[in-house]
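Human:
I keep going back and forth on a fold encoding question. Comparing notes only helps if you start from a blank page. Show me how you would write down a chain together with its backbone fold. Write it directly below this note and I will take it from there.

Assistant:
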Amino acid sequence: MNQNRRQFPRVAESTQVRWRRVDQDAAELGEAATMNISGGGICFQAWERIDSGSHIAVQLELPGIPLPVIALARVVWCELATEGAMPWDVGAEFHWVGWESGDAQRRIGDYLVDKLNR
């Protein structure tokens, strides 16, 4: 996507991600690593191809945020990686972000602003 069209700034952040397809019964938990994250979505590398349009649940831990962040997202694109340890680059758009606290998206926003201002 053209950088000028992005609604949210992206921060290059590498952290472990666990994900699962929510539109399939008993989907296995996948392991991945983030490439970047924003208030509106995430880009990560995965071991397997995830079809565009798939709905996934994502769990990630971000430095400075005490609990794992849980998100529901829709895969926007998936393509072969040109670098990195895992074979697939995946871009997903968040539809819902939270945990037991209702202010998860605000805290992610604060985290990203802090990273961008450094």
Summary: The chain has one domain: 9-116. Strands lie at 11-12, 16-21, 30-37, 41-46, 55-60, 69-80, 88-98. The longest strand covers residues 69-80.
